[in-house]
Design goal:
The structure is a single chain. The chain is mainly α and about 450 residues long. It folds into two domains: about 325 residues, Na+/H+ antiporter like fold (Up-down Bundle), CATH 1.20.1530.10; about 45 residues, no CATH class. It has 18 helices and two strands. A two-stranded antiparallel sheet has the order 1-2.
Length: about 450
């Protein structure tokens, strides 16, 4: 039997072939993240309307306590997911935001003026439409729900289309979603917080200051930032009344984003170490010599110094967020019961406020604002994009899902309003993804015909 080799001409073991390599391909496939998230939402709706619906809903109400010496935090599993696991999600969002500001598309606002304006419009118009339908009372608190865009779902649709959409469109939607995330974080911080306990908030501020000083003096250990960020900053915010996910974003902003060794220094060091490794006399056994082991460790240390802790954390945590945290969140939050008074949910002002806010508001904000700016010559479409691509992006922006569900849980205390908002989010996200997908496929065929 012929031995299978990898790209480095090394033998591939059965574990590599059947487990490790397929898992790596799955985890690094952007489409798979959207599929897993959608499947989790579908499973939640199925279980919520199955014979096991009571057990399914009771699962999320199980109580878990965290504490010592009489000081405990007692919350349901649902709250631990939304306040704890989702803090990890927001931490990665914060890492992405900092990377974009430091060295990404947001580092030069002139290049990002169109998607930034589209994102702002895509937040203002949905909120206004919701307010028109829910001007007062407890339902009016839901104005932040239709302002959010789910980047995982939206980009998942784009990756399904592959090379049928220009790279500029993916970049446009990514920057739009990043600005949208900034808006969502600010909205949660300023408008969806409970009574503030200033002592806990002040303690959180001290931990935040410690993280900032640690960055400035050169601390680069990611475990250190994790311990201070979770055990100090996150816990203090959880007790303060300010939503704990905000602590995750703030902690992410303190993660070092500078390399300790420049690119030229790295190349020089690695070449020197590799040449020393090559000069070593091989021992003709599967085990390296002590000197070789020492050189390999030096290469590893040099490589660590050439990477930023921010990028290392983002790279390693992204699969955890996409394939574990977001699906668990969807499973625990998307379970809406469709039996009973479904018509009552559909005709409610909350349902239509969220549905029209997402579908029409995002279209007016993203497509409308961008169209006007380009017509006035205040901004220009990125190369490779046309009006149909812009229209498709407007529909994809109506996929609110993760962030909309999250804000919905903060906006309402009455389960009736939460159920109405959930139904609107799920329905609009489904319709927006289908319409956006079909429109972008047509845009590709139209562009192809026009060029021939």
């Amino acid at each position: 039997m012929k031995t299978q080799l990898n790209s480095l001409n090394q033998p591939v073991t059965p574990v590599d072939r059947w487990v490790v390599n397929p898992l790596k391909r799955f985890m690094h496939n952007n489409v798979m993240g959207g599929i897993v998230l959608f499947a989790s939402a579908f499973l939640a709706v199925f279980l919520a309307n199955s014979p096991w619906s009571h057990e399914f809903h009771q699962l999320w109400e199980l109580k878990f306590s965290l504490g010592f010496n009489g000081y405990t935090i007692d919350k349901s599993l649902h709250h631990w997911i939304n306040d704890g696991l989702m803090a990890v999600f927001f931490f990665v969002v914060g890492l992405e935001l900092k990377r974009e500001v430091v060295a990404g598309e947001l580092s030069n606002p002139k290049n990002a003026i169109l998607p930034i304006a589209a994102a702002v419009g895509g937040m203002i118009f949905p909120a206004l439409i919701y307010f028109l339908l829910n001007p007062s009372g407890p339902p009016s608190n839901g104005w932040g729900i239709p302002m959010a865009t789910d980047i995982a779902f939206a980009l998942g649709i784009l990756y399904l289309l592959g090379d049928k959409v220009p790279f500029a469109l993916k970049l446009f939607l990514t920057v739009l979603a990043i600005v949208d995330d900034i808006g969502a974080v600010l909205i949660i911080a300023f408008f969806y917080t409970s009574d503030i306990h200033f002592l806990s908030l002040a303690i959180g501020g001290l931990f935040m200051a410690l993280l900032i000083v640690s960055n400035l003096v050169g601390v680069r250990n990611t475990v250190y930032y994790g311990v201070i960020g979770i055990g100090g900053l996150w816990l203090a915010f959880l007790l303060s009344g300010v939503h704990a996910t905000i602590a995750a974003v703030l902690a992410a902003m303190t993660i070092p984003a500078k390399v300790k060794m420049s690119e030229n220094q790295y190349i020089s060091h690695v070449k020197h170490l590799v040449s020393r490794f090559e000069a070593e006399e091989p021992n003709d056994t599967p085990i390296v010599t002590p000197t070789q082991l020492h050189l390999i460790e030096e290469i590893r240390d040099v490589s660590q110094q050439s990477l930023t802790p921010l990028q290392q954390l983002e790279h390693h945590m992204h699969p955890l967020v996409v394939f574990v945290i977001m699906p668990i969140f969807a499973l625990s939050n998307a379970g809406i019961t469709l039996s009973g008074d479904v018509l009552g949910k559909v005709v409610s002002p909350v349902f239509w406020g969220v549905a029209l806010g997402l579908f029409l508001g995002k279209l007016l904000g993203v497509f409308g604002v961008s169209f006007i700016l380009t017509r006035l010559k205040w901004a220009s479409l990125p190369e490779g994009m046309n009006t149909l691509h812009l229209l498709g992006a407007g529909f994809l922006a109506s996929i609110g899902f993760t962030m909309s569900l999250f804000i919905g849980g903060l906006a309402f205390t009455e389960n009736t309003y939460i159920e109405q908002a959930k139904l609107a989010i799920l329905a609009t996200s489904l319709v927006g993804s289908i319409v956006g997908y079909l429109l972008l496929r047509y845009a590709h065929r139209y562009s192809h015909r026009s060029s021939t």
